[in-house]
Amino acid sequence: MDMLIKENPSLSRVQKSSYLIQYEYLKKMGQHQKALIALEKYTELQDSSFQQILDGKIADYEAKYQTQLKENELMKKDIELKDLKLDKTRLLSGGSFVLLLVFSGLMFYYRKLKFQKKINQKDQEISNQKILDLEQKNKLLALSSMIEGQESERLRIAQDLHDGLGGLLTSVKAHFNTITRELEAVSQINVFQKTNELIDEACGEVRRIAHDMIPHSLSEHGLQGVLTELSNTLENAGIKADIEVHYPLLKVPEHKASMIYRILQEVSQNTIKHANANHLLIQFFGDEKNLHILTEDNGIGFDVNTLINKKGMGLKSLESRVQYLEGQMDIDSKIGKGTTINMIIPIP
Q1: DSSP letters for 38-95
Q2: 305-317: per-residue pLDDT in tens?
Q3: Which is it for strands 279-286 and 290-297: parallel, antiparallel or unpaired?
Q4: Which residue in 38, 106, 126, 191 has the most C-beta neighbors within 10 A?
Q5: Count of Cβ atoms closer than 10 Å to residue 284 Cβ
Q6: Hey, what CATH class is 222-348 in?
Q7: Which of the four pLDDT bands, split at 50, 70 and 90, describes residue 294?
Q8: Within the chain, what is the greatest distance between any pair of CA atoms?
């Protein structure tokens, strides 16, 4: 019967109902012994059904438990896999960050070295420029000392010529005049007459040299005072001189006026000796800070580049004097087109 109950649950339910009806009937009939037996059989079937249900539920719970265990195991493995991937990701991120830091450090170091190299290069350039400026300054100081020495020497020579040789020649001339008065017969000798003329010429040459070195009108009237004499010198050499003054030359300091006179002397002599010109224009104009001097002749001209490379004494003298005055000079000349010189002299 147990096998039938286990194999056929529907039959078990029918039998349980039958035993329960028998129990109720036998109990009413007073057959208590038989009713007890029917009740025991019903109870036995009932317990068997409960056990079967319980076993089924236990098996079901066991299956669910095993399934849950497998799911938990899979979840655990999945979590471990995710943790492993996360660790790899963190490791890669950390490595990338370290590489980025190293790369940034190398770039910073490279840029620092490059910047330091530029700074060192700039410092070297500044040092070289300072050396060049110092050398130029020393050259200008030497040039200034040389020109000042030349001016002092010119003044001394002019004074010696005027006071010494000039006075001596004047005395010689006076003695010759005395001899002439006392010995009228001597005046008929040609040698005496020639000697007298040479003495007069020597006196005039001494005065001219002394005047060219230190013109009296320059010390008396400044730069404006020597322009007429400069014009006369050019006119005597067959060169028409036009001098235009559009600047208050009295503002020019004495030491600069003397040097400007030397410059104009040099330009005039170059025009007389080399330009083969018949006209020279000299203009003075400027502003509050600078004096502009423009000279222009209609001579044969020259190749500026060739002359600059040769650096003749005339050009060197002009350059040195303009540099001494802390000025600038520009020469424009073409063969057959004459020569133009533009000078800018700062006037404090």
Answers
A1: HHHHHHHHHHHHHHHHHHHHHHHHHHHHHHHHHHHHHHHHHHHHHHHHHHHHHHHHHH
A2: 777 666 556 677 7
A3: antiparallel
A4: 38
A5: 20
A6: alpha beta
A7: very high
A8: 220
